[in-house]
Amino acid sequence: MNLIEQIDEYMIAYQNGNDEALETIYSLLRQPLYSFIFRYTRDEQLSIDIVQDTFVKLQRYRHHYDPKKGKLKAYLFQIAYRIMIVKLNRRKKLQSFLPFLTPITKEEFHHADRMTIQHAIVKLPEKQRGVILLFYYHDMSHEDIAEILEIPKGTVKSRLHNAIQNLKLELEDDFHEAQSFERGTSSPYEIR
Amino acid sequence: MKPNPLKEEHHLRTKLDEYEVDVPNFPKKLKYSKWERLIHVLASPTKDPFEPLLSATNGFMFMKIAPIAGTVVLTLLQIFLLT
Question: In the predicted model, what is the mean pLDDT of residues A19-47?
Fold first, then answer.
């Protein structure tokens, strides 16, 4: 039995009244959930709040989960994603009405700095960001991503393709450097 | 098996692998109280509403002159209203 199936078993135990099973689910899924939200928002406190809210919702609606319909991991990611989108939309509204009252979240990035993968991901359109994060860092299938983001499977594929192209574009300098290393030169601007 | 469009993207995969997240040790309790959330919102850093004014010379001058001008206007208003 793999870890994902084990988590599903713990959830069934929790639904049957074993409260300790929830603690195990929490310890197993807290980290991946936090990583996903943090990579998406780059906001530590918001990510912690969303993870907490996700588990509160899981407790409240524990009997809504049906193992036949999908894995618990995807179910929890779906809850977390919905909460995150609601919170981000609320924050955007607050930002437009009272710009000086909203917490500072965006990290300053100067074009003179080297583009890092963190900045490249933050610069991706939100629709593409979720897809690449779930696919690469959380090893989700296209079906699971489609379920979490509530979009068709074909859209997942096209967004994933676009996200990869955009990341390559953002990290263009790094790619050129890597290619020049592969060709045996130390710098793309080397004078011969 | 799921198709992997990143299979051939060795360099991109290396870059993506560089992005690690340190998960903080947030408390085991499953929810913050509303009071704690409010305290967090009030205590979180926010933008300075006067920053655009202070960063430009004209803005800085405006900040200096505005209270004086305001005082003059209020004084004149009182003089006209009382006389």
Answer: 92
